[in-house]
Amino acid sequence: MSGTFDVAALVGSLRRDSYTRILVKAFTRLAPPALQIEIVEIGGLSIYNYDDEASPPAAWTDFRARIKRADAVLFATPEYNRSVPAVLKNAIDVGSRPLISNAWAHKPAAVVSLSPGVMGAFGANHHLRQSLVAVGMATMAHPEAYIGGAAKLFDAAGDFMNPASAEFCVSFLIAFELWIRRLTNPLPAS
Asked: How far is residue 31's CA from residue 74's CA, in Å, rounded to a whole number?
């Protein structure tokens, strides 16, 4: 099995040094060589309004094109009020419209959630998965990734302080690569 995959990573926190962003940057270093992970910025997307579809903002068209070009999407989210941040939900809405050219359709996806608390943003993770079903994404079911204790995960360089956390993330990324391969190279019918 060879080849590389372009993985668009969406970070659900706009804060420059958010734990979620640090996690995705760590993922880029830990990922198997086949996963080329690139953070796709979502903070510049205006709030979705159907009235703007007659002449969509350039940020929307560029974002849609980038997602369509990707082989897969990695969603990394913190939890805000037991759900995903509005900026992440807005990105999903922007990418899903117009419905006839839904950028998310049939793309392999993975979700990782992260929080300073012990539950690892469990609520946001599952709420996000509901939206991904609605836009036609094939979201990896296992392993699930709810990462708690974010404030104590990383050193000043953004590397994991606990080897077990890094090992879990590597296994998650390996599983994601296999998920992408499975969906992009389906087995022949018997």
From this structure: 12
User: Which residues have a Cβ under 8 Å from the Cβ of 84 and sit 6 or more positions away?
Assistant: 12, 77, 124, 127, 128, 131
CA torsion 73-5-57-93 (nearest 10°) is -20
* 8 A C-beta contact, residue 80 and residue 49: no
Counting every residue, how long is the chain?
A: 190
71-117 confidence digits (pLDDT tens): 999 999 998 888 899 999 999 999 999 989 999 999 999 999 998 87
Instruction: Output the pLDDT for position 81.
Output: 83
Q: Is 145:179 a contact under the CB 8 Å cutoff?
A: no
- At 77, give phi and psi (nearest 5°): -135, 140
For the entire predicted model, the pTM comes to: 0.94
Tokens for 100, please give them: 């006839």
pLDDT, tens digit (0-9, with 9 covering 90-100), for 37-59: 999 999 999 999 999 999 999 99
CA–CA separation, 98 vs 124, rounded Å?
Answer: 25
**Closest Cα to residue 74, out of 116, 3, 26, 122?**
26
Q: How far lies 166's CA from each of 72, 157, 171, in Å?
A: 22, 14, 9
Helices (H) and strands (E) in the chain, counts: 5, 6
